Amino acid sequence: MKTLLKHLLFFTIIGVCAPALAQDEEKPKTTKFVVPPDVNGNKTVIALPETRRPIKVGVYSGPGAPQSSVDAVVKVMKPFTEATTVILSGEEIGTLNLSAYDVLVFPGGSGSGQSKGIGEAGLKNVREFVGNGGGYVGICAGAYLACSNFSWGLGILNAGTVSSKWRRGQAILDLEMTEAGKPLLGDVPGVFKVRYNNGPILKPWTRTDLPAYTPLALFRTEVAKNDTPAGVQVNSAAQAIGTFGKGRVFVSSPHPEGTPGLENLIPRGVFWAAGDKKEAVLP
Predict the structure, then answer these.
(1) How large a percentage of the chain has pLDDT more than 90?
(2) What does the pLDDT look like over 241-259, one tens digit per residue?
C-alpha cells in the first residue's frame, strides 16, 4: 500500500476542456501535460495590447471551470493595471446586474459543466449582457459554451463543431495568423506554437440571425487521438471573433494563456471584446 501511494505522488491529474461530460460516463484521466518554457524560442510572440482602457472583467469560477484554469486567466490579466479582474460564481452570473462589467471570461474546463454551473438564469443573463454591448471571451470550454450547436450553449457565436468526438488529446500545435487576425493579435510572421487540450474544432453554423465568425489564427497541425476524425483540425480557426447584438465575442480553442510567449493573446482578446469606452450622453 505504501509503495502504491508513493507511485501515485508522481502523477498529477488535470481537467480537460470538453463540450459535455455525461454523468454515467467515466471522466477521462490524463497525466499532467508540461509545456516546455522555450516552446516559442523564449520569445514574446504576441506583443502587448496597443489599445487599452480601464475595464472591469468578470471571470467565471465554478462547476466546469477548474481552479487552475481560472488562475491562468487571472495571471495573464494581472500585469494590466487598466483591467480590474473579479471572480464570479455561477450564482452571481445568474443574479448580478452584469452591466457593471465590460467583459466576461469563461475559462477552460467543461462547456456543459459551466452551463449547468450558471444555470438557465445565468445563460439568459450572459446573452442579454452580450446582446446589450458586453464582451465575451471563451477559452476552450468557454469557446464550446459560446457555440450554437449545443442545447446547453449560449448560442452567441455562429459556429458549431465538426464532430461529437471531442477527445482529440493534448499537444503542442502550430498556429498561423490570418490577415484578419493581424490588426487584433499583431502581425506575427510564420507559425508559432500553442498548447492544445481538446478544444473545439469550429465550423460555420447555420444561424441566419448572426453574422459569420472571423478566424484570427488557424491551426496548421493537429492531434487526432481516441478515434477522433483526422484532417479536420488543420486550417480550422484556433481563435475567432463574432458579434452578438451590440456585443463582441472572442473565442480560443487552444490555451495561449498556458503557453510561454503567448501570454498577451487572451488580454488582447479581452480588451478587444470590451470595445470602445461608452461615453455619457449629455442632456
Answers:
(1) 84
(2) 999 999 999 999 999 999 9
* Identity of the amino acid at 96: L
Q: Which three cell numbers stand for residue 186?
A: 499583431
Q: Which residues, including other chains, have CB under 8 Å from residue 237's CB and lie 6 or more apart? A: 159, 202, 213, 215, 216, 217, 218, 219, 253
> Amino acid identity, residue 246?
K
Which backbone phi and psi does 28 adopt, to 5 degrees?
Answer: -65, 140
Q: How confident is the model at residue 1 (pLDDT cuts 50, 70, 90)?
A: very low
Pick the closest to residue 69 from 258, 271, 214 (CA basis): 258
Give Cβ neighbours of residue 209 (< 8 Å, ≥ 6 apart).
Answer: none
Nearest to 144 by CA among 180, 107, 101, 185: 107
- How far from chain centre, in Å, is Cα 63? 16
Identify the three-state secondary structure at position 141: helix
Closest by CA to 18, choosing from 63, 49, 51, is 63
**Rounded Cα distance, 14 and 28, in Å:** 10
